[in-house]
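Appendix B, record 7
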Amino acid sequence: MQADTKLQQLLSQLNTVIAGKPQQVGHCVTCLLAGGHLLIEDVPGVGKTTLAHALARSFGLAFSRVQFTADLMPGDLIGVSVYERGKEGFVFHPGPVFTQVLLADEINRASPKTQSALLEAMEEQQVTVEGETRALPSPFFVIATQNPLDQLGTYALPESQLDRFHMRISLGYPDRAAERSLLQGQDRREMLSDLPAVLTPADLARLRQAVEAVHTADPVLDYLQDLIAATRNGHWFVQGLSPRAALAVVRAAKAQAFVQGREYVAPDDIVDILPLTIAHRLVPVSTSGKGATEQVRAMIDAVPLP
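Structure tokens (predicted):
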């Protein structure tokens, strides 16, 4: 199928830009094919912004980049109405959020007020300015990068906003071979400037329809519901997952199966994708001594496979 060929071309191109991280690149593509927003969290300098740029360009979508800073205001993001004398009235000037892919760089360096300005856009694909609702382009994705919270000048994202991110990934440091290729190879910023679009919006729409058609058998759904129930029993997490989070897991598992060339979701898809789709939505119980991702993996080990 032509769409499958293009998908492989997309993955290959992304892996030439982000060396030595095929699993993380695959997860990013999975997230966007599932129709979700993506949060890339890691220390500075490991390629978060480069990956976000490469994703936007390779998917063939219009994109804007916003560098989130402490003085960024909601109007800088959404847009403002300005009085124009020649038209004898206020004219709306749209902000960078009016695009298909918004690269929100270092999103947790902006104030909570500005972070919250993205909530409506991410959930409803629209923004309300001065009482008037304006639709955003379709498709609309937010690819955000975030620095660890222990760094100076960062603000924790509110829980309501974290819940709008379909998946959260980390790149980590490259291995020795990948780092050597970075040191000897072409500058990644130069590679980005020459990066062609592999997909068109029509291709993306067809791929997403194919993802929706991936079959999820009842035993796999039973397994997922067992895991969701485990998050709610008070043993692992302070508060359990919502039905919206469960739906996010299903969509991500379908997208991963499709990326791997299968027409059905396997239990391993749930196991693989679960920490990336739910850990950022959960707070471990204080007695666990583990981070959310570690706690999710421990919970997976405790729930029997179908």
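Remarks on this record: The chain is about 45% helix and 15% strand. The chain has two domains: 2-205, 214-302.
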